[in-house]
Amino acid sequence: MGNNNWVSHISIENVSFGYHNQKVIENLNLKVNKGEIVVIIGPSGCGKTSLLNLLNGYLLPQSGAVQMNGLIRTVHQHGSLFPWLTVNENIGIGLRHLKSQRTQQKAIQDMLELINMEGFEDHYPHQLSGGMKQRVELGRVLAGDADIILMDEPFSSLDYQARLKMRRELIGLLAKRPKTVIMVTHDIEEAVQIADRILVLTKRPSMVCAELDVNVAHPRHISDPDLIKIADNVLHELGL
């Protein structure tokens, strides 16, 4: 688990960023509370991934300030499992802060149980389905001492049924191991099923045009009238 002296809190104040004089993000403001799941949605190419890269420090803002109070881990769109490592070893990457090998192995076993991957400890990534790979990705992040998880369209490469399953599994995992999460997606259905709060971005240069609270208890069903209303509001803000 993370250092309890750190508060998982994210603050973005008047952040602007661009490439080669082309403004991508302009005067963006955002605050995320500890344990909150915020989903960011917007038009294709509006700068959602650039925003995540500003949060994890891969990019620096041209103006404004980004404050991340906690250890950060990222779940990437196309996966980042090491192909030469087994499931056991990939999850173990997130546990290098544990000094005892016995403690590490116990933590790995606990995570394998949590993500329903028992029996696949010695499999390599190429031997796993897309959904199984994503479960291992999540397991590696949750097993570590990260306070904040950034997710860049983590389920976009999966088929529809696998995406539905992974949404439910993500919520279940976060209920057992709470983290502060910012997820980027283009899928409105996914956003309303997962988020505590949805941020809708404009076209470039991106600004927040709407913030929508999703005060619906889990498990959520897409046929819920409240979720349908929120999804309609997102569509309206996107001009669709």
From TrEMBL:
<dbReference type="InterPro" id="IPR050166">
    <property type="entry name" value="ABC_transporter_ATP-bind"/>
</dbReference>
<keyword id="KW-0547">Nucleotide-binding</keyword>
<keyword id="KW-0813">Transport</keyword>
<protein>
    <submittedName>
        <fullName>ATP-binding cassette domain-containing protein</fullName>
    </submittedName>
</protein>
<dbReference type="Pfam" id="PF00005">
    <property type="entry name" value="ABC_tran"/>
</dbReference>
<dbReference type="InterPro" id="IPR003593">
    <property type="entry name" value="AAA+_ATPase"/>
</dbReference>
<dbReference type="InterPro" id="IPR027417">
    <property type="entry name" value="P-loop_NTPase"/>
</dbReference>
<dbReference type="GO" id="GO:0016887">
    <property type="term" value="F:ATP hydrolysis activity"/>
</dbReference>
<dbReference type="InterPro" id="IPR017871">
    <property type="entry name" value="ABC_transporter-like_CS"/>
</dbReference>
<keyword id="KW-0067">ATP-binding</keyword>
<dbReference type="GO" id="GO:0005524">
    <property type="term" value="F:ATP binding"/>
</dbReference>
<dbReference type="InterPro" id="IPR003439">
    <property type="entry name" value="ABC_transporter-like_ATP-bd"/>
</dbReference>
<feature type="domain" description="ABC transporter">
    <location>
        <begin position="10"/>
        <end position="228"/>
    </location>
</feature>
